[in-house]
Design brief:
The structure holds 2 protein chains of 2 kinds. By secondary structure, chain A is of the alpha+beta class. The N and C termini of chain B lie far apart (134 Å). Chain B is mainly α. Classes of the chains: A alpha+beta, B mainly alpha. Chain A binds chain B through residues 3, 50, 64, 67, 69-71, 120-121, 125, 139, 144, 146-148, 150, 183, 185-186, 192-196, 214-215, 218, 222, 454-457, 524-525, 527-528, 531, 533-534, and chain B through 1, 33, 35-37, 39-40, 43, 47-48, 50-52, 54-55, 57-58, 61-62, 65-67, 70, 81-87, 89, 92.
């Protein structure tokens, strides 16, 4: 037989058993390649996530208000724990938790349970070195507020899963949240990771700049804290706005609560601070002359049979400026009667009362303005001095800012996004607004708000005192009041509009006695820090004493 | 048969090239794995360092928070908040001279005779 043929036969015979093997190989490598490849990679490769930090919240000067820092959370996989008691005892010193708590959490888990969140890098390192079976570690991001409770009502809160629960953290959640970076890694036989590639580069959001001024916010909170800690009132609110563009500089509330922002979410009966609306309508329409006198009726006036309005002091004849200075309910009700319900209602709406301001915060209240059909003679009289309606503090702040800047209502701006401020509308003629501003200066200089004065500076504003409704009787309480003061300074060129509201003050309850001093103290601090020169010449007597 | 058993230099070069390529691929794989380990270790180190930096920045922020500064100013330095009338602006009293030489001249204690 030919040598070549013999070799071919021998080779064929020896290779024949390999044919099924080759066929099997081809089947696995070609036909089942995809499914087997996926199964194999699942055995040794995984996707590691690096939790994306939430964007920092910064004040108008770039100072940090909220920040995310890397941290670790650990969990138990119950299926891998044989003895929960021993597991707890081993972990207790590392987690600084009672062993019993760890064992209880482990037993109570169906399969998975968090043991501890917000752990530091050192704690994580100790746990890694301890190599405890059944314990898993996950990198997370912790939200921290370096200034403590400062502006927490505005900033809000972030939950354990890193989602915003309240305040700006909630309303801006999408903008603040980043996208986690995903890395593909493979594991070797000892369980060590080997970097493979970046599956998703993720997204790190840019910091969010707010219009808040950290220092102004601190001063506002400090102004409230002193009285709040002494129990001088039940709840307090202080807000500061730049009247020239609507930027909110501070929003403070006592007691501090990250889940609630009463400046935006609450509405209150404003009382006499609302008299400016009536007065402005009268001056704008020229239905009241500057020196026209209205009778104070000796402090009691029957609007209609059975309905009597009273003043806190018996008054005689007063012009409009004196009505504002003495905060006469009777005087302003008579002015409102002259103005008429339609004009009063239109101006109140123009100021933004009864509608949401558009502030980027959750749960904003629109307040409550009676429909024009309810503004009967009595209804109009009550509304003229701020009863029978509800406004949010933010609306009131915006209204006084409009008075401070010559009549422009700005949309409140809380996020410094580089966009120009939004002008809502002109509420009244500049002439009328300037006249009212002068009257408000008179309120501070000669009227009910004497304690709002700041030496060397011109300030303008209006006090307010309103009875609160007793929730049990649904009638006006005889012991619970809301004291307020809204004003701006320096009156020559206003830089700050300040609103102070104190709910249920103890002892003295007039706005001029309890809220106006807070305005003065806060305004004084703001003026000192800004270094603005005085806009009122020193009184001769004061100069002589010095 | 002679051709099968004979020495063909071209074939040897081809096998050597193939072998070198295989060696290179093996070396590359080993290097990639080694670098993969190092990347993973470096990534962990970077995370630990980022965590440390974040902790330190947090401490700085906490230290310079207005409440902390006010407390230190008050308790350690005995400072109290100033009022606007306790400030004196020096800018109003300065010479109106503009420029370096005129300002220096204005500071010299030389009284020029007044023209009257």
């Amino acid at each position: 037989m030919d040598l070549g043929l013999r070799l071919t036969v021998a080779a064929s015979l020896s290779l024949a058993p390999l044919l099924p093997l080759g066929a099997r190989l081809a089947y696995l490598q070609i036909l089942r390649h995809d499914s087997l490849s996926t199964r194999a990679s699942g055995e040794f490769s995984r996707v590691a996530q690096e939790a994306a930090p939430r964007a920092d919240l910064l004040d108008r000067h770039g100072k940090v208000l909220a920040r995310s820092i890397p941290s670790w959370s650990c969990f138990v996989d119950k299926a891998m724990v044989k003895d929960p008691a021993a597991f707890g005892a081993k972990l207790a010193p590392l987690l600084k938790m009672p062993a019993g708590d760890i064992a209880r959490k482990t037993r109570a888990a169906y399969r998975f349970a968090w043991l501890k969140t917000r752990m530091s890098q050192e704690e994580h390192q100790k746990l890694v070195e301890a190599r405890v079976e059944g314990l898993g570690l996950v990198p997370t991001q912790e939200r921290v507020y370096p200034n403590g409770d400062l502006a927490r009502g505005v900033l809000g809160l972030v939950g354990a899963e890193g989602r915003g629960l309240a305040g700006l953290e909630l309303s801006q959640d999408k903008r603040l949240s980043g996208r986690a970076r995903r890395l593909e890694v493979i594991r070797d036989g000892q369980g060590r990771s080997i970097y493979k590639n970046v599956a998703d580069a993720g997204d790190m959001p840019e910091p969010l700049h707010l219009t808040l001024d950290r220092t102004a916010q601190y001063l506002a909170e400090e102004a409230l804290r002193e009285g709040g800690e002494k129990g001088q009132f039940k709840e307090g609110i202080v807000a500061i706005q730049d009247p020239n563009n609507g930027e909110i500089l501070a929003m403070a509330a006592w007691p501090p609560n990250p889940l609630r922002n009463p400046l935006v979410q609450d509405a209150f009966e404003p009382g006499s601070t609302f008299k400016v609306v009536t007065a402005l309508a009268a001056v704008d329409d020229r239905v009241v002359l500057p020196d026209e006198l209205f009778s104070g009726e000796g402090g009691k006036w029957q609007v209609v049979p059975g309905v009597t309005i009273t003043d806190h002091e018996p008054e005689g004849d007063m012009n409009l400026a004196q009505i504002m200075e003495r905060s006469s309910n009777i005087g302003i009700a008579k002015v409102a009667d002259r103005v008429g319900a339609a004009r009063f209602y239109r101006l109140a709406r123009a100021f933004g009362f009864g509608a949401k301001t558009g502030a980027p915060l959750p749960g904003e209240s629109s307040g409550e303005l009676k429909p024009m059909s309810d503004l009967t003679k009595v209804g109009l009289a009550a509304s003229s001095y701020g009863y029978g309606l509800a406004v949010s503090p933010l609306q009131m702040l915006g209204a006084y800012s409009a008075l401070a800047n010559g009549g422009i209502l700005w949309e409140p701006k809380l996020i410094a996004d580089g966009k120009p401020p939004v002008k809502v509308r002109r509420v009244a003629s500049e002439r009328a607004v300037l006249e009212i501003s002068a009257m408000l200066e008179g309120v501070v200089d000669r009227g009910t708000a004497g304690s709002a004065r700041i030496p060397g500076y011109r300030a303008a504003g209006k006090t307010g005192t309103a009875r609160k409704i007793d929730p049990l009787t649904r009638k006006y309480s005889t012991s619970a009041y809301t004291a307020s003061f809204a004003g701006f300074l320096p009156a020559s060129a206003p830089r700050w509009t300040i609103l102070v509201i104190l709910h249920e003050p103890r002892g003295a309850y007039y706005g001029g006695l309890v809220a106006a001093p807070i305005f003065s103290r806060l305004g004084s601090r703001l003026l000192t820090l800004s270094g603005l020169p005085p806009d009122r010449p020193a009184a001769p007597s004061l100069t002589a004493r010095r | 048969m002679d051709a099968l058993m004979g020495f063909d230099p071209r074939r040897v070069v081809k096998f050597a090239g193939l072998g070198a390529l295989l060696l290179f691929l093996c070396w590359q794989h080993v290097q990639a794995t080694r670098i993969g380990y190092r990347v993973e270790v470096t990534r962990r180190t970077a995370r630990a360092l980022r965590s440390r930096v974040a902790d330190l920045r947090l401490k700085v922020d906490e230290t310079i928070s207005p409440a902390a500064l006010a407390a230190r100013a008050n308790t350690k330095l005995g400072m109290i908040p100033a009022t606007p009338d306790s400030l004196r602006s020096l800018s109003g009293g300065e010479s109106s001279a503009v420029g370096l030489l005129p300002r220096l001249w204005a500071r010299l204690p030389i009284a020029l005779p007044l023209r009257s």
